[in-house]
From TrEMBL:
GO terms for cellular component: cytosol. The lineage of its organism: Bacteria, Bacillati, Bacillota, Bacilli, Bacillales. GO terms for molecular function: argininosuccinate lyase activity. Residues 104-303 form the Fumarate lyase N-terminal domain. It comes from the Bacteria. Pathway: Amino-acid biosynthesis; L-arginine biosynthesis; L-arginine from L-ornithine and carbamoyl phosphate: step 3/3. The gene is argH. Residues 371-447 form the Argininosuccinate lyase C-terminal domain. It catalyses: 2-(N(omega)-L-arginino)succinate = fumarate + L-arginine. GO terms for biological process: L-arginine biosynthetic process via ornithine. It is an enzyme of class 4 (lyase). The keyword Zinc does not apply. Belongs to the lyase 1 family. Argininosuccinate lyase subfamily. NCBIfam families: argH. This is Argininosuccinate lyase.
Length: 507
């Protein structure tokens, strides 16, 4: 028989919260809040109390009573507690504890604020910490890449386009491209931090307050770089977390392409690199196997990171332009997880890069046997024969096709065959001699002559790496300044409240 309304209410509970609602939404949100949001919530409470007292909105005696209540809360017990439904969420449970300790005076701690502006501020405090951790690990990887590249400016290797052998380059040139890409990811993460690190406090529900609170002082006490100017925007704008998700997603995609290449290079067929024993697992059945599982896991973790970031963006999509704190309760954990995953992969990859062994001799031999150098042969004909590049290209292409059909490598190209092709196309032999031919087919010469800005010439790569090191130093200084600003503000807030919370006869 169908269950009637009264029977259903009896099953779910006649008052808030319904059993299933608590199970599906409120209990998971409570667990996330006590793990991630409780400490920043207390930071906001302390800062708000300092501001209220400075503005004369609470008396000295009430401020000290509330401070004592803040100091007496058993945060460890709160973090171990389970959701019971007695309180809607963690905020009300904390407020109840304060009222128990300080009486009605504690009710004024919520003067001129709402869970809307407070919740957004707490989310921003949490996200900025996770962003800084991620940026710190990205800088660690960036430094390892720069050091690794610096060791391989003379390590000649083949570059690929369309997955085919293209032209000789160096390992340093390749890795410098990866670190440049990582540098752009760092700049995007820093830009996301700049937009995240702004204060919503004082916006209250959405229209500010008639009380003379200081939004500017709250931003200062919480080490925000400034205010979200419009109060409606302060509680409605979700792009601060969307921008983080977009930056994280792109960073994961960028890094995933490099990780996939490392995995390919680990195969015996490519034989480019050797992963150190701490990051390799054996097969349970095949004694010869060295499975580079650390790289495999990074590949899948970066995919999950990009997916979690996309979930954030999808959950924001088509939400109303208004307070969406409830939606944010559900989406914030995905942002936290995506940042945590990206940060951990940065650290792991930095360790792996720092221990890689490169098969320099094998890479050089492959480059020397390849026809990837013949672009320089065509360029040489332009220089020595005053031919157009297209004509030189046609001559060289014909010689290469003939060599391939005969099973020859680039080192087997003959001046006689080149002259024969030239005679068919331009009607004469070339002035090119044997020494010039050999030099034009040498991968080291190919690399050395490409000294334009951004090229693989070792000196040019060293210049580029030095420029990246300057950015690295600047980014490290930026990170240190941000961490110090946050630490200083938090220390001031905590020590001020702790001092106020001591009864006058004990101070």
């Amino acid at each position: 028989m169908p269950i009637g309304k009264q029977d259903w209410l009896k099953e779910e509970g006649a008052v808030f919260p319904g059993r299933t609602y608590a199970e599906v939404v409120l209990a998971p949100a409570f667990d996330q809040a006590k793990a991630e949001l409780l400490l920043p919530m207390m930071t906001v409470n302390r800062a708000h109390l300092i501001m209220l007292r400075e503005q004369g909105l609470v008396s000295d005696s009430d401020a000290e009573r509330i401070a004592a209540a803040l100091e007496s809360l058993d945060l460890a017990a709160l973090q171990q507690s389970a959701y019971t439904g007695q309180f809607e969420d963690l905020f009300f449970q904390v407020e109840h504890g304060l009222l128990e300790h300080a009486g009605d005076a504690a009710g004024n701690l919520h003067l001129a604020r709402s869970r809307n502006d407070m919740g957004i501020a707490i989310y921003r405090l949490v996200l900025r910490e996770k962003l800084l951790e991620t940026i710190g690990s990205a800088l660690l990887l960036h430094e390892r890449l720069l050091s690794f590249a610096g060791e391989h400016t003379e390590t000649v290797m083949l570059g690929y386009t369309h997955t085919q052998q293209a032209q000789p380059t160096t390992m340093a040139h390749y890795i410098a491209a990866v670190s440049d890409s990582l540098g752009r990811d760092l700049r995007r993460l820093k830009a996301a931090f700049a937009n995240c690190n702004r204060s919503s406090m004082g916006a209250a529900a959405l229209t500010t307050s008639g009380f003379a609170v200081s939004r500017e002082r709250m931003a200062e006490l919480l080490a925000f770089d400034g205010l979200i100017d419009n109060a409606y925007d302060a509680v409605s704008g979700a792009d601060y977390v969307g921008e983080i998700a977009a930056a994280v997603q792109l960073a994961a995609i960028n890094l995933g392409r490099f990780v996939q290449e490392l995995l390919l290079w680990s195969t015996q067929e490519f034989a480019v690199l050797h992963v150190a024993p701490p990051y390799v697992q054996i097969s349970s059945i095949m004694p010869q196997k060295r499975n580079p599982v650390s790289i495999e896991h990074m590949r899948s973790l970066l995919s999950s990171c990009a997916g979690d970031a996309q979930t954030v963006l999808t959950m924001i999509h088509n939400t109303p332009f208004g307070d969406i704190v409830d939606t944010e309760d559900d989406l914030q954990p995905y942002a936290w997880k995506s940042l945590r995953t990206l940060e951990s992969v940065y650290r792991l990859l930095g360790c792996v890069i720092g221990t890689l062994e490169i098969n320099k001799e094998g890479l050089r031999a492959r480059a020397e046997a390849s026809f990837a150098t013949v672009t320089e042969l065509a360029d040489t004909l332009v220089r020595t024969e005053s031919l157009s590049f297209r004509t030189a290209h046609t001559i060289v292409s014909r010689v290469v096709k003939e060599a391939v059909s005969r099973g020859l490598s680039a080192s087997g190209l003959e001046l006689e065959a080149l002259n024969r092709a030239a005679g068919e196309i331009i009607g004469r032999d070339l002035a090119l001699d044997e020494e010039e031919l050999r030099r034009s087919l040498d991968p080291s010469w190919f690399v050395a002559i490409r000294r334009l800005h951004g090229g693989p010439n070792p000196e040019e790569v060293l210049r580029a790496l030095q420029h990246q090191r300057f950015r690295q130093e600047s980014d490290e200084a930026w990170l240190q300044e941000r961490r110090e600003a946050i630490r200083t503000a938090r220390q001031y807030v905590d020590t001020t409240i702790a001092r106020w919370g001591v009864p006058q006869n004990q101070s």
